[in-house]
Amino acid sequence: MSCWVKYGEECDFPIENLPYGVFHLKGEDAREARVGVAIGDSVLDLKVLANNGFFKDILPFNVFAEGALNSFMKLGRPTWLKVRKVLQDVLAKENPILRDNQELLKKALFPLSAITNLLPAKIGDYTDFYSSREHAENMGRIFRPDAEPLLPNWLWLPVGYHGRASSVVVSGQDIRRPNGQVKAPTAATPSFARCNKLDMELEVGMFVGPGNDLGSPISIDKAEEHIFGIVLMNDWSARDIQAWEYVPLGPFGGKNFGTTISPWVVTLEALEPFRIEGPKQEPAPLSYLQPKSPFAFDIHLEVHLATEASPAPSQITQSNFKYLYWSMAQQLVHHTITGCNMVPGDLLGSGTISGPDKQLGSLMELSWNGKNPLVLPSGEKRTFFEDGDTCIIKGWAQGNNYRIGFGDCSGKVLPANKI
Amino acid sequence: MSCWVKYGEECDFPIENLPYGVFHLKGEDAREARVGVAIGDSVLDLKVLANNGFFKDILPFNVFAEGALNSFMKLGRPTWLKVRKVLQDVLAKENPILRDNQELLKKALFPLSAITNLLPAKIGDYTDFYSSREHAENMGRIFRPDAEPLLPNWLWLPVGYHGRASSVVVSGQDIRRPNGQVKAPTAATPSFARCNKLDMELEVGMFVGPGNDLGSPISIDKAEEHIFGIVLMNDWSARDIQAWEYVPLGPFGGKNFGTTISPWVVTLEALEPFRIEGPKQEPAPLSYLQPKSPFAFDIHLEVHLATEASPAPSQITQSNFKYLYWSMAQQLVHHTITGCNMVPGDLLGSGTISGPDKQLGSLMELSWNGKNPLVLPSGEKRTFFEDGDTCIIKGWAQGNNYRIGFGDCSGKVLPANKI
Ligand SMILES: [Ca+2]
Ligand SMILES: [Ca+2]
Ligand SMILES: [Mg+2]
Ligand SMILES: [Mg+2]
Ligand code: NI
Q1: Which of B262, B266, B282 is nearest to B274 (CA)?
Q2: Which of A83, A88, A303, B80 gives 20 to 30 Å between its CA and that of A38?
Q3: Distance between CA atoms of B222 and B332, rounded to whole angstroms?
Q4: For residues B175 and B414, is the Cβ–Cβ distance under 8 A?
């Protein structure tokens, strides 16, 4: 596929991708936010395209004039496919309709450098799963070295917990190191302290489309109809706070101080060529979780770290979305199986994605709970994040001469508030 | 205080109360929803009052014309107090301004029997705590009979978990019994089955007011500024599903199929006369959790059960909000201590409220995990809910010749979907 917008083979946003985001121009008020797609180094303003009749008979109203993708997400895949077709037509190299309309181009195409990205959706609820077998096993080995690394339910259901939606932020927003209650194993009583084990979690987040009514679960053969697309996600974690608080009701303050996502939602359509079989599931899942078709995706993932002393980012780990044991479809189905309703714009995190061959998706695993510091190219060492560190997740699916990329999922650590 | 609207001493909604809710008239579309206060057996339409200039110079715009209380909750206590004063003036026995304006009365005062209540707010995030010491101890004794009933962190912090906001429903909405994954302790593998241990949890929910920015915790001396008011809450729970899924990340599908709240939000102002000292906290909380003033409330709570065979509700348990070990202020502060941002309309559940003298807030405790069935006045027995059962929570603070009541928090159990 050829496009009249120019870009190279390593560009995240070729015409095969067309991920959706919410933006306004720098200098504009946030109330001006609208929907765009990333193409090359630019963003195409879909509000303007809709106002100019490009989606006539496809949209019930100008869903792209809103500062969130929820209304578009609600419309479902038949509409998503029609819009994608229009966009690929309009951007096709040979099509002059927008390419040669200088007046419209000026109003509809902006360099990415000129815009501010906002959260792509109003996230009603955010849920975080724990679906990488290798990550779960590593955590088990670190915390319960003498026991079976996997807990009894792990191979039977996608373990997950409800997260905090209000603190999901878009790439680029700084994250303040938390203070909180911690207790060293050797201490008699807990204390209030600065978090000393600030970690990342390398995850992928899925955005829900139409969703379901309360009491009416989504079946496994319908799951894909309800998945709009995915983003990269850093589920920042305060390991010392989490360790003290999480029994018996799960992570709380150790997780709710910030979750960073990449701004562009990559659709299942764009990822379709990269769909593959996931890990073999043994024991076989119960029938409500048995997939009818493969639903893993070959997406290369990397984490880079920039420090204050050494601002050029260096890679600290890599992984692949294909290692996820429980698929997004299975996660979604299990989430609704007791009747829970999904709403357009809900966000479901994959859980930290580690892999079978030293792919490690957290500093907890990379430093083995602080025992083995990472040595950066600058010579600096890290067990967990230091103030001023910037953690950048990147990811892409590699096609022939093109990439389906995600853009950066980046956040910088600010010093904790004074105690 | 005397009011020109007539009601008896046991009415939930005297002039001292004035709880806020969202409603439309039966037959109207949900888009007509607006804010009202309950008074006697009626509702006063605040949208109409605002349009008629009653809140001039108090409100930035007609926040009562919205189908949710979020905008009003955001305004903060100084505004809430001004509005309350206007309402108590307007409703005072001797004030003719509305009392004698038949034309306006016809547009602004409706019998409760003529309205449909909606959720009082758009709930961005819902969190559930676990703050009754007696409930936590009972659960410990049931599930870990040979160990200390309280886990090590319980006396040091208000343990809680993020819940599911999308499935919070208003009183009166039926709840479908869930199906889900369960595993009997003696079974080799789990199975997919109808929930056999459907339970209630007797709770109180608090609605958040203005809230805080991400990274800027709310301090204990400011906590009250951020608490708008409270409702009764039934945190429906599928105990068999929860038991299998909840280790290590907490309750999930066993909790996210429905949470019922009462429709009228009772303000802290109305509850002020019933503020008392809470349970003594020993060990003393860390300083960030040390209260500056008493923050327990003497609110009598009852649970009634109606069955299909015996539709007249009978009381199955009672408790009191004053037994809560960790106060709402402490819960709110702890929730934000790592930096989590609170948003107007967020809902925080107290946790099941049991007490020191056989006050038991769940069927799990009342039947001691099914070992001791309750015998209802009709002779029917219950360990957990049967299909067709209706669970009704009631509550009030008892003043001299008046009550600050909540109205019913009621939900009927529908049969599970066919497997
Ligand atoms: Ca996570
Ligand atoms: Ca609860
Ligand atoms: Mg997080
Ligand atoms: Mg619930
Ligand atoms: Ni939420």
Answers
A1: B266
A2: A303
A3: 10
A4: yes
Q: Are B411 and B262 in contact (CB under 8 A)?
A: no
**N residues, chain B:** 419
The pLDDT value recorded for residue A292 is 87
- The alpha carbon dihedral of A216, B171, A70, A319 has a sign of negative
pLDDT at site B216: 98
> Could you read off the pLDDT of A202-241 as tens digits, one per residue?
999 999 999 999 999 999 999 999 999 999 999 999 999 9
Amino acid at A204: V
The DSSP bridge partners found for residue B26 are: none
What is the average pLDDT value for chain B, to the nearest integer? 97
Gap between the Cα atoms of B155 and B153, Å rounded: 6
Average pLDDT for A194-200: 98
Q: Which residues of chain B have pLDDT under 70?
A: none
pLDDT at A266: 99
Ligand nearest to the CA of B128: 2
Asked if A252 is an interface residue toward chain B (Cβ–Cβ < 8 A), one would say yes
| Closest by Cα among B192, B125, B258, B419 to A334 | B192
Count of Cβ atoms closer than 10 Å to residue B152 Cβ: 11
B162 is catalytic: no
Q: Is the separation of the CB atoms in B269 and B84 below 8 Å?
A: yes
Whether residue B414 and residue A165 make contact (CB cut-off 8 A), yes or no, is no
At position A282, the amino acid (one-letter code) is E
Question: What percent of chain A stands above pLDDT 90?
Answer: 98
Partners of residue B226 in chain A, C-beta under 8 Å: none
Q: Which residues surround ligand 5, an ion (CB under 5 A)?
A: A 125, 165; B 125, 165
- Which one-letter amino acid corresponds to residue B219? S
Residue in the structure block whose two tokens are 């956040």? A411
CA of A37 from ligand 2 middle (Å) equals: 42
Nearest CB to A167: which of B163, B181, B340? B340
Question: How far are the Cα atoms of A152, A351, B244 from residue A285, in angstroms, in the given order?
Answer: 14, 19, 15
Single-letter amino acid code for the residue at B232? L
CA angle B210/B274/B123 to nearest 5° reads: 30
What is the enclosing helix (H) or strand (E) of A118? Answer: strand A115-118
B155 contacts chain A (CB < 8 A): no
Note the pTM of the prediction, 2 decimals. 0.97
Going by DSSP bridges, is the β-strand pair B191-194/B202-208 parallel, antiparallel, or unpaired?
Answer: unpaired
- For A357, phi then psi, to 5°, come to -125, 65
Rounded to a whole number, what is the largest CA-CA distance in chain B?
73
Residues with Cβ–ion distance below 5 A, ligand 2: B 128, 201, 235
Q: H or E stretch including B77?
A: helix B77-91
Q: Does A217 touch chain B if contact means CB atoms closer than 8 Å?
A: yes
Query: Which residue out of B24, B135, B226, B335 is catalytically annotated?
Result: B135
CA of A177 to the centre of ligand 3 (A): 12
Q: Which whole number is the average pLDDT over A141-168?
A: 95
Q: How many CB atoms within 10 Å of residue B330?
A: 25
Q: Distance between CA B142 and CA B284 in Å, rounded?
A: 27
